Amino acid sequence: MDMIFGVPAPLLFGQLVLGLINGAFYAMLSLGLAVIFGLLNIINFTHGAQFMMGAFVAWMLLTYLGIGYWWALLIAPVVVGLSGIVIERLFISRLYKLDHLYGLLLTFGLGLIIEGTFRNLYGSSGLPYRIPPELTGAWDLGFMFLPVYRGWVVIVALLVCLATWLVIEKTPLGATLRAATENAALVQAFGINVPRLVTLTYGAGVGLAALAGVLAAPIYSVNPQMGANFIITVFAVVVIGGMGSILGSIVTGFVLGVVEGLTRVFYPELSSTVVFIIMAIVLLTRPAGLFGRA
Description:
Layout: E1 3-4, E2 7-8, H1 9-40, H2 47-65, H3 69-90, H4 100-122, E3 138-140, E4 145-147, H5 148-170, H6 172-182, H7 184-189, H8 194-216, H9 226-241, H10 246-266, H11 274-285
Helix pairs in contact: 1-5, 1-8, 1-9, 1-10, 2-3, 2-4, 2-8, 2-9, 3-8, 5-6, 9-10, 9-11
């Protein structure tokens, strides 16, 4: 058996792939958080519950309506995004002029309500969601077999992250969104409906979380706790990358996923805390984050 740094090669590459997959979800979830915080200045603690809702919508579509995975990739983000728009209009829009703490407490409470509702309806045990037939099997990479679906998740996450970054940073729409966060009154004077723009931005950020939930459904069991298992680490990713930094969230999400995977190989006892150790070091040396602005 081939050894790399004293570790069996299949084990090392397997953990690298696992880390890359976790990193893909970290990147997509932190991307949605960064969009919402960077453009709305709201720390959205409901994000983990909305990730879970995306997985549940996919499961419900298949179980109750016979609508499969490919349509769920389109329908679930829209459905959960619309629920996010309702939440923003009814609750969050009242907090924009208040301290960030109020938004954090509100979204944290809403996340608990959503999670508790699903737990009461469906229990806490996982519900299976099958991989579509087109994405079953594995690719032979020579040094390991890579499950097709896991490779698909990484590719889709990269494409979605890149597309979101391009929209925010390189298009007139992104420029308008950034301007609205800096000087809403001026943008409103040009005839742009800023409240509607803000609402749609929040819905889009929530839709990104729901899309990640659909991608996660065949890998992790669909259960009310699945968002809670990710969200704390995702917030650490956002802090390390820089609050509100789109590029920072993407790069940091993938890198920390790989670092976490390698830590499981070389120092397993540290794997559950390595992200938070890195966060502490970054905050001590660069409080605004690696890609953030002071």
